[in-house]
Protein: Type II secretion system protein GspI C-terminal domain-containing protein
Amino acid sequence: MKFFKSKNVNKGFLMVEILIVASVIVGAFIVALAVAQNSIFVARSALYSAQAGFLLEEGVQAVKILRDNDWDNISALSASTTYYPAFSSGTWTLSATPSTVGNFTRIVEMDSVNRDNSTGDISSSGTDDPGTKLFTVTVSWAGGPQNFSKTLSFYLSDIFTE
Structure:
């Protein structure tokens, strides 16, 4: 008997090659889309973080301007109360009314400062120092499914009192 080799042994192999190439192309496209999406997210996060930094510094400067105008602007504030800085009629104010700047919420909180009776250093207990206050400025924003915030705390003194 004679054995004949069939010429159709490779029949269908071209189809398998096409499926493999198509799968590789689709996979590469999906990976490229995921990389692009992550790049956009990282760029947007960096932009929001930079904007928040500027708003944080602006909040600090607003409080300092209030102090420079008159210490009574500072001493009239209630401790542990949330305030919102607002620029109105050419001047800064701290309002109890929530306000936002774009996607950002900026809050200012003031706390009293105590001084050690013997050393005069700032301490957790001691005599209240009406000429020094601790301020905390916080800027928060939504970044997709999670919220972000930046916080800066600083002491402010009544430097213009004689």
